[in-house]
Amino acid sequence: MLVFFFIKPNVDSETRDDTVPLITNSDIYVYEEEQPTVLSRIKKLLSGPVGQRLLGIGMAIVAGVLYGVNLVPFSLWRNSLVAKHQDPGPLDYAFSTYIQIAYF
After folding, report:
1. Which residue in 10, 12, 19, 93 has a CA-CA distance of 20 to 30 Å to 58?
2. Is residue 45 part of a domain?
3. Where does residue 31 fall: left (phi above 0), alpha (psi -120 to 50 degrees), or beta otherwise?
């Protein structure tokens, strides 16, 4: 490593030209007309009031399905406890409800 300390570089600072840009304007190709993408079409659809209403309805449907899926196991569990002649209390569902919500 000490040997490299004594090597003199060949590059002269006076002959270097740092003012030349790496990319010139002729290297850049600009598209004159862009084709609409799927994402731009979706943004255009959702920008209007009808699109926002459809988005809200879709989100409500998804939330309802997730809420329904969340409650199905509890009704099955309650029915099995009633069949065994046990009385399920309201706090029997609390821990499993919060664990299931955190899981989803």
Report:
1. 93
2. no
3. beta
